[in-house]
Design a protein that fits this description.
Blueprint: H1 18-33, E1 38-41, H2 51-55, H3 58-70, E2 76-80, E3 85-86, H4 88-94, E4 103-108, E5 113-114, H5 119-126, H6 129-139, H7 141-152, H8 156-186, H9 191-196, E6 202-204, H10 209-233, H11 245-257, H12 270-279, H13 281-304, H14 308-327, H15 331-345
Parallel strand pairs: 1-2, 2-4, 3-5, 4-6
């Protein structure tokens, strides 16, 4: 006889356990398979570190989240909403540097927090009791006065009384300074500080988040589509100079800044970039053709100037290819080709 019983397991919220980490990685992979952009509202304090969870391979399932982000090709936005936070291992697997070509991180202005250690933990590590006592004696007027009296006093009884007063003053101030230390550490986790160290793109007001991400996504989809064309144009033949996605975006930015009326600061304006792409479509298509041509030029140049047998074989192959193509041309095309060849090599 088989007996069935219900098992209820309590799991803390905002924490990844082996099952939830696997589901997260699976969901990201499903979005990637559908070739969809991804928006993550992040509010995790990390991974469960219990012995049973370690036995259930929580680290392996956490690494699956990283693998899913590495393979992602569409825009990924990680947004820390108001009063949410990213801590511990959650910060590690959501960091935008995992796949910098597609991932961007943002935080809600004011109340969002982010950092590996929580403020209480950072304060207990970086601002221990001895450091708090040193700060008290440096800042508190009463303690400074007692320290001066202690150094000037001559009798032992007076020194004992002053030391007791110092100890009592330290004990009364310690809770206040502990709170100040925690607040000081929390200042390092604010959106302003995250922006200053470069881990988020910018802070976004919650009331403007929907509008901001609407235009940001439209711009990124258009940018990703065009930079893919740039990469394809730069990989003719053997692909001597293969552009990365980040390199293609940088080239696109140079073209944007080089356009009259555009500036580097306007590159962050999503509406301005979209308007530029729409209005300069013919110009951009021309730049793609020029890039394609330059890739062919570099391919031929390197084949003919490589030296040794490589140059001989490369030159012979190019000449033979030109000859075969020439035979398939019409009379008009042959004349144009002859004129182009004369102009190029001064015949």
């Amino acid at each position: 006889q088989v007996l069935w019983s219900e098992a209820v397991t309590q799991e803390a919220g905002c924490v990844w356990f082996p099952n939830s980490a696997y589901k997260t990685a699976q969901a990201i992979n499903d979005f990637r398979t559908e070739d969809l952009p991804l928006m993550i509202f992040a509010n995790w304090r990390g991974f469960s570190g219990g012995q049973r969870d370690m036995f259930d391979e929580v680290l392996k399932y956490g690494s699956l989240i990283v693998d899913a982000f590495v393979a992602y090709e569409q825009p990924v936005f990680v947004f820390i909403p108001p009063f949410a936070e990213i801590r511990g291992g959650a910060w590690v697997v959501l960091d935008a540097s995992i796949n910098a070509s597609v991932m961007e991180m943002y935080a809600s202005s004011g109340s969002a927090r982010g950092g590996v250690l929580e403020a209480n933990g950072a304060a207990s590590v970086k601002y221990r009791s001895k450091d708090l006592l040193s700060t008290m004696h440096r800042l508190d007027g009463t303690l400074r006065s007692l320290d001066a009296k202690l150094s000037e006093s001559a009798s032992d009884d007076e020194k004992v009384a002053i030391k007791q007063s110092i100890k009592e003053r330290e004990q009364s101030l310690l809770p206040v300074y502990e709170q100040i230390a925690v607040q000081f550490c929390e200042l390092h986790d604010t959106p302003g500080r995250m922006k200053a160290v470069g881990v988020i793109e910018k802070s976004v007001e919650w009331k403007n988040a929907r509008t901001f991400f609407f235009w940001r996504l439209r711009r990124k989809l258009a940018e990703f589509d065009f930079r893919k064309k740039i990469q394809e144009a730069s990989t003719i033949g053997r692909g001597i100079q293969t552009l990365t996605a980040i390199g293609a975006s940088a080239m696109m930015k140079e073209w944007f800044i080089g356009t009259p009326g555009m500036s580097e600061s306007m590159w962050d304006d999503d509406k301005a970039v979209l308007s530029w792409m729409a209005q300069s479509n013919n110009v951009l298509e021309g730049k793609l053709l020029d890039l394609n041509k330059q890739s062919v030029v570099q391919e031929v140049f390197q084949a003919m100037t490589a030296g040794g047998n490589t140059a001989v074989i490369g030159t012979a192959g190019i000449v033979e290819g030109i000859g075969q193509a020439y035979q398939t041309m019409s009379m008009d095309d042959k004349e144009k080709f002859k004129n182009m060849l004369k102009d190029a090599i001064d015949l």
